């Protein structure tokens, strides 16, 4: 156990969490845009064999050498899953990318519309690099302020009923405070305090964040925390006025992740907090 802890410490010391080697190029463009390659190195592609071959179905975030965070609604017990890491384009072979099967999938025991969160244990530990790094996650109970500029990333559809993106996309989605998002003419009771709402202005695109993918929010020191997991949006289109994208709030599930992740996950989180402070 001590040897494993030392190895994890060395990996995290070399690369950190939430600190890309190639920082994202941020803009306030309307709709999504291609990202700078490998500027969100914790973004993963979750793929299933539901079509008889590996096909992208959801996004997710790498948390440690062994664990990936995604949405529970992405998982169907009938299929097998694998995770591709270090990808920019899903249609091209890319140096440094890795594909690993899922050794274990844990969906939240109380998942329905609520508690839309899942953990995937990789079949082998991934080695961190310039293109594959873990996400930081926020402290438990952190509440983002209304209007906070966060970014959703993924290979989702480029427009309502449009084709999926070939290359990773990013879109600015300002946070909508719970008091607003839970109003009757917004998401009402469907928006709980264990969710984060973002977007919904009818202008900024919300198609680009695949289900399970991250809501990335920057800290004052420049590092990025994954505050949300894409859960649901309006069935009427990609970005409907007063119907922002709804994310599972990561900070509300820290204890759950530590509990179901057992020793390996707890050790990684503790080391991450010790080494970098802001990353947990």
Automatic annotation (TrEMBL):
GO biological-process terms attached to the record: proteolysis
GO molecular function, one term: serine-type endopeptidase activity
Main location: secreted
Ranges where the Peptidase S1 domain occurs: 29-262
One Gene Ontology CC term in the entry: extracellular space
Catalytic activity: Preferential cleavage: Leu-|-Xaa, Met-|-Xaa and Phe-|-Xaa. Hydrolyzes elastin
SMART domains: Tryp_SPc (SM00020)
Entry-linked InterPro entries: Peptidase_S1_Elastase_sf, Peptidase_S1_PA, Peptidase_S1_PA_chymotrypsin, Peptidase_S1A, Trypsin_dom, TRYPSIN_HIS, TRYPSIN_SER
Compartment list: Secreted
Assigned keywords, A-Z: Disulfide bond, Hydrolase, Protease, Secreted, Serine protease, Signal, Zymogen
EC id: 3.4.21.71
A Pfam family reported for this protein in Swiss-Prot or TrEMBL: Trypsin
Enzyme superclass (EC): hydrolase
Protein name stated in the entry: pancreatic elastase II
Organism: Labrus bergylta
Lineage summary: Eukaryota, Metazoa, Chordata, Craniata, Vertebrata
